[in-house]
Design a protein that fits this description.
The protein has a four-stranded mixed β-sheet, with helices on both faces. α4 packs across α5. The protein is an alpha+beta fold. The chain contains eleven helices and eight strands. The chain starts with a strand and ends with a helix. A hairpin with a 2-residue loop joins β1 and β2.
Length: 322
């Protein structure tokens, strides 16, 4: 397998190039988004109430692209044995394109984490909420389609990098949540839920697991009027665990109405409608599931693949014959 990672810094800019043929393409992009979230959160966490003087507020823009590059190899002499050929440099248009995507991220309204179309396409199977943006990419195109990350859920936050850091993060951004304006940022809400949830699943005891579960519940249910996409997604997931299919459907419907391009939410919507059609559901539940699918088919056919349309139609037919 070929692995290569290179970091570069110049002025106020930094770049990370990764080549890893042992990883799935989608996993690389997903990890890049997670890294971007953690980097931005680390900068926020540096600004603590105890700091004297307080650090100057700082935010960063990030661009992520996935594309082909040319690997330049060179010979490296190990301590023993023959010289080995290793990657010492990478070149290609994809590098320049990634830099242009990063430059456009300053125009962002949410996380200021921008993805190229190639990178965004690889996230269809992950809980990442994206918004399409048309921006000029200097020297490439006057109006190029890119995507900004609104928010995301990460299933497996690092458990062994720095335990104290994550506990400090939870204490500051979850336990003291009502005192922080910072949580108006959707991406931050997604990272908070991801962090607590990962700590919960890694807990060594039932009591600690319950403690983290309560933190997640307190965070996602503290404001019933909350319409943040990841909060709604987390609520739907919680309802699913409790087999409350109609409530789960309600939250997913509100989510896909506002974010029809959120593929994971569409998949979960189809999943819960199928569960309702399979179970011994009340007639009212069946009608809600049928009407939800028909409405989505009528309003957003452009976002559905042929396979999704066929699956939705199968569910409607199944409900009709109940």
């Amino acid at each position: 397998p070929t692995s290569f990672c290179q970091n570069r810094c110049r002025g106020d800019e930094g770049t990370v190039f990764c080549v890893e043929d042992a990883e799935e393409s989608a996993d690389l992009v997903y990890k890049a988004v997670q890294f971007a979230f953690e980097l931005k959160a680390t900068i926020r966490l540096m600004k603590t109430e105890e700091s004297t003087p307080a650090p100057r507020p700082m935010d960063i823009g990030i661009g992520i692209h996935f594309g082909r590059v040319a690997a330049v190899s060179c010979l490296e002499q190990p301590p023993a044995g023959r010289p080995e050929s290793v990657i010492c440099e990478i070149e290609g248009f994809a590098i320049n394109y990634a830099k242009r995507v990063e430059s456009s991220s300053r125009m962002g309204k949410f996380s200021k984490i921008f993805l190229s179309r190639e990178a965004a396409r690889l996230l269809d199977g992950d809980p990442v909420v994206l918004s399409q943006v048309i921006v000029p990419l200097k020297g490439i195109h006057d109006s190029e389609i890119v995507f900004e990350v609104n928010s995301a859920l990460f299933e497996d936050m690092p458990k062994n990098s720095n335990g104290k850091y994550y506990e400090d993060f939870i204490t500051r951004y979850a336990d003291k949540i009502k005192n922080l304006d910072i949580t108006r940022d959707s991406w931050m809400k997604g990272l908070i839920i991801s962090t607590i949830d990962s700590r919960m699943r890694a807990a060594a005891s039932d009591s600690l697991r319950l403690e983290y579960a309560k933190k997640v519940a307190n965070f996602i249910w503290q404001d019933i009027a909350e319409d943040d996409p990841i909060i709604l997604f987390a609520r739907a997931r919680a309802c699913g665990v409790e087999k409350k299919h109609t409530q789960k459907l309600t939250y997913l419907k509100a989510l896909v109405d506002k974010y029809p391009t959120f593929v994971q939410a569409r998949k979960k919507l189809a999943e819960v409608c199928w569960q309702i059609s399979e179970a011994d559901s009340e007639r009212a539940e069946l009608v809600i599931a049928r009407d939800t699918i028909e409405e989505f088919l009528n309003r957003f056919p452009q976002y559905l693949s042929d396979a999704e349309k066929d699956h939705f139609l199968t569910i409607i037919d199944k409900i009709a014959h109940k």
